[in-house]
Design a protein that fits this description.
Layout: E1 7-11, H1 22-31, E2 36-39, H2 46-63, E3 67-70, H3 73-79, E4 83-86, H4 93-100, E5 105-111, H5 114-122, E6 127-130, H6 147-156, E7 161-164, H7 172-178, E8 182-185, H8 187-190, H9 195-203
Amino acid sequence: MKQLSRGLYALTDNTLIGGDRLIPAVTSAIDGGAVMVQYRDKSGDTARRLGEAQALAELCRRRGTPLIINDDVALAQAAGADGVHLGKHDADIAAARAALGPEAIIGVSCYNELERALAAQAAGADYVAFGSFFSSGIKPDAVRATTQLLVEAKRQLHIPVVAIGGITADNGAQLVGAGADLLAVISDVFGQSDIRAAAARIAGLFL
C-alpha cells in the first residue's frame, strides 16, 4: 500500500484558476501545505489540457507533491502524472493500473457507498473518496454523505479515505475528527484571494 500523506488534497478547477493563473495558484496551494494536487478540467480542449497537465506534473515533481488527473487515464499517462482519480463512469481500476503501472496512485469516487469503497479496495485502489459532505457550488446535485460513513469506512478500510464536497476551513475539522485522511477542496482554496493562506488554514486542521 502506498503511503499517502494526511492533509489537504487541492483540486483545481478551470473556471476558478484557468490559463496563466493555474501554475501560480497551485504553487501557492503547495506553499500553503497541500500534500496532493488533482488536475480537474472538464472542458474538451485536449491540447490545452495536456499542456497544463504536463506543466503541473513538472511543478509537482519539483515540489515532491503527487499530481493526480481527474477522470482521464490517457491524460495521466501522457502528462507523466502520478496517478488518476476515477468516477463511476470512468475506466475501471484494472485498466488504469495496466496503463499507468504498479506505482501509480489510483483513487476512486465512492459517493455515499461503503460497499463501492470495499470493492475498490479489493480491486487495488490506493484511496477512496466519499462525498458530498456539504452543499457544493461545483456539484450542487451531488449525493450527500455523512460523518458516520467516514467512521464506518475507517473501521473497515485499510487505505486512505478522502472527504470531498463543500469543505471549508470552518467545517472540515468534523470530517478530520471522523477519520478523513485527506480533505479534497476546490473553492475554499482556489476561489480565495490569498490561496496560500486559504490552503494553510485547511492544512492546519491536521496538526
